[in-house]
Amino acid sequence: MIDKELLEILACPKCKGEIEYQKEEDKLLCRSCRLKYPIRDDIPIMLIDEAEIE
User: Fold this and answer.
1) Domain spans of the chain, in order of start
2) CA 44 to chain centre
3) Could you read off the pLDDT of 9-54 as tens digits, one per residue?
4) CATH of range 4-53; options 3.10.20.580, 3.40.50.1980, 2.20.25.10, 3.30.450.40
5) Residue 21's Cα: distance from chain center in Å?
6) Under the phi-then-psi rule, with left for phi > 0, alpha for psi from -120 to 50, and beta for the rest, what region is 5?
7) Residue 10 near residue 39, CB atoms below 8 Å
8) For a Cys-Cys bond, which of 12, 29, 47, 54 suits 17, CB 3.0-4.6 Å?
9) pLDDT by residue (tens digit) across 2-17?
């Protein structure tokens, strides 16, 4: 699970949009550009090359 304070300061590296935690997939989603960023060992991997398209 991602800390709420961390989630508030994170932004999508591609469009700078808000990030939303997807609990069921344990990923971070940018609704603006539809990219999902993985979380590994409780660390968000906020790299565009690592993102999946929703």
Assistant:
1) 4-53
2) 7
3) 999 999 999 999 999 999 999 999 999 999 999 999 999 999 999 8
4) 2.20.25.10
5) 7
6) alpha
7) no
8) 12
9) 888 999 999 999 999 9
